[in-house]
Amino acid sequence: MDYFFFIDFLQSLTDGLLFGTTYALIGIGFTLIFGVMRKLNLAYGAAALAGTYIGLAAFLSFDAPPTLVFLLSALGSGVIGILVYYCCFRFTPADYPMASLLASVGMLLFIEEVVIHASHGMPFPYPSVFRDATIELGDIWIRGDLLFVFGICVVAMAVLFWLLYRTPLGLATRAVSQQPRAAALCGIDPTRVNLLTFGITGILGGIAGAMTAAAVGVLSPIIAMGLTVKGLIAVVIGGLGSIPGAIIGGLLVGAAENIFLLLRGVTERDIYVMLLLFLFLVLRPGGLFGSTAGRD
Amino acid sequence: MDFYFGLLQIFGVHTLLGLSAYVVLLTGQVTMAQAGFYAIGAYSAGAATAMFGLHILPAVILAGLVTAGIACIVGFPALRVKGLMLVVATLAFGEMVRLFFFNLTWQVERGGEMVGPNGAEGFRAIRYFPENGWEVWHVTVFIWIVVAVIMAALWWMDHSRAGAVLRAVGHDETAAQSVGLNLTAVKVGAMTLGGFIAGVGGGIYAHTVTHIEHGVFGVLLATFAIAYPILGGLGSVFGTVIAVLFIQGFLIEGLRFVGDWRSLLFGALIVVAMNLRPHGLLGEHAPNLRRIFGREKTEREALNTKEAK
Amino acid sequence: MKLKAFIKAGLLSASTLAMATAAAAQDKAVRIVGSGASSGVVGIFGQNSSAAMAAAFDKINEEGGVKLADGSKAMIETEYYDDRCNAEEGISVLRRIASTDALVAIGPTCSNVAEPLFGILQAQVDDAGDTGLQFPVFTDVAIKGGLAGISEWVFRNTPSEAKMYDDLFAWIRAEHPDLKTIYGGVEEDFAHSRFTWYEVMKKAAEKHGFEVVGEAQWLLSDTNFSNQARAMRRAEPDVVAISAHPFTTCGMLREMSRQKIKPKVLVGLTSSSSLETLSGCPDEAQGLTIPTSFAPVNDNSKAAAEAVVAKGGQMDLHSASAWENAMILKEVIEAAEIEGTPASVEEDRRKIRDGLAALTEADGLLGVNVRQPDGEAVKPFVFVHAQGKGWEVLHDPKS
Questions:
Q1: Whole domain around residue C136: which residue ranges?
Q2: Interface contact C190-B120, CB threshold 8 A
Q3: 3-state SS class at A202
Q4: Do B253 and C87 touch (CB under 8 A)?
Q5: Least CB-packed of B199, B246, B292, C363 within 10 Å?
Q6: Does B309 map to a domain?
């Protein structure tokens, strides 16, 4: 094991972990919605993408500063998240998850097509901060913009925790997710909680989309599918319904992806990520942080 | 005229894809592995005819059996989990299959040319039909005979004990288990049958398009596989056929006159359809425990809205 | 803006339709239709080539249309079918076109649609044992090498990348005799990019004495290129060739500039010489050198580009082919002396096919396109490089 390999390994690990935060955010979104509604929202990645494009529109039309672009991306995605709730979840039967699943697939295709229609499928530059800043620790370079992405994602997670554990709204959300019927009996309006969850997860998705676009520097509609799949994998590895699980899962997927890229090349990289997931499912079906009761 | 026969071919092939997911969905499992099974069928049937000169019928049956075998093996670990975990597990399997074919290069020489899967460039010249003098309508008739046989078999199964067993597991696993059903056997059985149908469908698909590549068998195709039966309704096999007609016939071909807006309407109309007919276009007509308790349910629904199934 | 363009396109097509029907009252009409992806991620290609085709046919119609066998003139009617870059839909569209009185199709956009599409056509003409579709297809956009060999009914007017990159590397060798090494970057899961690097660029570079010191691979939707760029940095290549589409090309260029990799020459994929790359990463793309079969360098091509813009499209190397195809088809139809009556549709298609097969040369926007016996074309090209917000001609191999 020579020196270069060691450096490469460390560098891949660092990049992967930093990048993994975006997967973690998407994972949290899936897990929150699933926790509250016991349903899968496949339109989530697309909503995140569309929100990111809203930020981009501001950037292109009046050259908005990056902070505003990120903010608009997040808020836009939150609004679209609420829209998704009304279109796919509000009026479909609560006890038949397949209806909302398919409705969210329709929504995914619709949102993607709207984005493509508006942008002609062209890639556009997306603003970023600290793009040229690099921290050099010996032979290991840490990208400034990735650190920023990491920081923003951590802040987003911290705010989320505060919302969930320190506010009455969060209490209601957790109540619905643990015991929906008891929560309803206590006078918590499930529709309101659901709306709120879709809004919050939408914002998280928007941040993830914006940060991915900022890290690449270019925005194209094709990033939505990758985010969706990686986010889902992060959820399963971490354990359904567990927010810390989704975070660890996201970081793990990011790191594993980069290390397999280094070891096995790009064409086989994703096979090994999927195998890792399969392994988790077989050996630990509940995920890292899920209880075995979370198998549903 | 050939255009309409061609369309019928697409309907037939997609019906097979949808039916393969239908069987698994009956047991209440949402599977995203069908695109992977479809790919295995497509590549093995393509290899059988284009590389080894087999007749189409044994090739397609072979493809079905190979796929069924793999589906059975995958079924055991995958079906340990359910719900969202299963969606992701099967999604991962489907992607693994796709990436396998992405990396697969295996060519043999036939008639002076190299034939076979060539990695990212795909598998070219699966031209069994035109090379052997099959007219378009011959192919269409062949496909629909296969579809009819499979549909009849599934229809018969639906009305036999096997169908009741599948639906019992789909409706309430605990209840099904307590009356002595072996959950693993039922689920893996459904997965294997679904794999067989997907393999046959994929095998025929490869021959109707003559060229296959990994990109076709992605997440989108897997989504369509489950979309057909859900959109059509799980009551009977005809739900899947109706949904294929709706998506392939109406949304894709029928809306061509609206030009640019066709792709936008595509997703939007699926959303509308699921809101208006959440249990599918044909609904759940077949014997179903849920319908028997249906009346009681509506009264409880107000309280129950957010209860997990 | 989109809505406006849509309404405008609608009005335009309505008016041309009205004109066409008015013309049809006195004259005959010949139908030539296009197919390709005009929606979805690659929809822009189809939209551009449909605009170019329509503009070209308008020009032909304004000049009186095409001459038929009996000496009368016929107007050209056209239409564009969207296949959403999906193989099944592409086949279905072609079957639909063949069931009408259309004489020839221009398309498709995607190489992954082109392969199956050509596969359902009859492989060899007059092969009674082959029941494949008998319909001439004249491809404008789908560019992956060697596809026309699949069927004798297929002709392509896409640039020959083998020749372009051979000339490009020869020119680089002559201009920079001190450059030794080359590093390749390839979008591994896209058939065209992959083919172009391994079969075209790499071979051409080695032929002209460059040593390939490494290859970086990534996938179509990748967002992180740091590993690939790091390996590239260590190899310290003089030349970097990137065979990828605009999205990942931009991602990789960004990462390269971040890691301060500054090759002396940067070579890109033909398809990237469009507006997309410059819209995605204008700063990093500066100096990117690409051979392309279209650039507005002479009066002819400038006029054509303006006509296409007026139709709401953009002229690039892909849509230029659509324009040229329309013009070439006019010549072929007149030379083949078709009847243009409903009864003669089959014969006319065959005549057009034979006419295309017999061509050895055809006029293109940049000069004479050489037609190859296998249905491919060798088109004149220029080397362009990204300067500011546009592509500028760097070198014209003919001069």
A1: 14-158+297-366
A2: yes
A3: helix
A4: no
A5: B292
A6: no
